[in-house]
Known about the structure:
Function: Catalyzes the conversion of S-adenosyl-L-methionine (SAM) to carboxy-S-adenosyl-L-methionine (Cx-SAM).
Bound molecules: S-adenosylmethionine, prephenic acid
Shape: globular
CATH architecture: 3-Layer(aba) Sandwich
CATH topology: Rossmann fold
GO molecular function: carboxyl- or carbamoyltransferase activity; S-adenosyl-L-methionine binding
Number of domains: 1
Protein name: Carboxy-S-adenosyl-L-methionine synthase
Pfam family, one: Methyltransf_25
Amino acid sequence: MVDKIFEKSIKKQFEFDEDVASVFDDMLNRSIPFYKQMQELTIDFALNYLKEADTVYDLGCSTASTLIELGKQSNVDLNLVGIDNSSAMLSRASKKCKAFGIDIKLKNEDLLDTSYDDAKLVISNYTLQFIRPLQREKLIKKIHDSLKDDGIFIFSEKVISSNKVLNKQCIDTYYDFKKKQGYSEFEISQKREALENVLIPYTDDENKKMILDAGFSHCEVLFKWVNFATFIAIK
Ligand SMILES: C[S@@+](CC[C@H](N)C(=O)[O-])C[C@H]1O[C@@H](n2cnc3c(N)ncnc32)[C@H](O)[C@@H]1O
Ligand SMILES: O=C(O)C(=O)C[C@]1(C(=O)O)C=C[C@@H](O)C=C1
């Protein structure tokens, strides 16, 4: 279904509710530049590290599209676990897993409360940005501590620049991208307001510092388009 959520006047904060879930795949494809390519890279790099029976967690799995694709492309059997606290997202995820015949354990839990036992790889694309900064640092520490010694964490985030002028140019470029995707100025400004204080982006350096402070030995950017970046961290 086509995302028309912000065509009408909306006063509430952004939520992953039934309305958003019903258009979510279209929303992501039209709101995150190179979303498909970023997902392919996530899977390509994940496959570099995965062996038979490894456990993979996707934190904020939404409709499970990344884990389904990983399951389809893997030559080995994996233990795939998707975690999200939106029932609307998970009910779609469950239907898609059945339709594609991919076995994924879907858990309706808060990322801050759940455990990530036996993790070889953790993925979290465009989700950490929705976790409050203090909780975010704790979550990253938990991910680090749960990963096996040679574990990998791949995550993507909307990012900001610490240079004010460049930051404004990045935001303008992003809004031009959204206009080219068919969103009106009204839809763009309504969504911006709804996301205020809900989506809290860091700079690239802040993301890397958070990762290294949690104990990871290495972190770098795998892919970046203006204000959207994908990182890989090695335990
Ligand atoms: C932008 S979406 C993630 C997109 C998805 N990773 C993908 O690439 O298709 C963020 C997801 O995180 C989930 N989420 C946000 N905060 C959460 C929390 N505290 N616990 C569990 N899930 C959360 C939302 O319900 C939503 O489905
Ligand atoms: O539309 C925006 O402004 C975005 O920031 C895109 C974004 C994201 O980065 O997560 C915001 C909310 C939805 O989850 C989908 C995409």
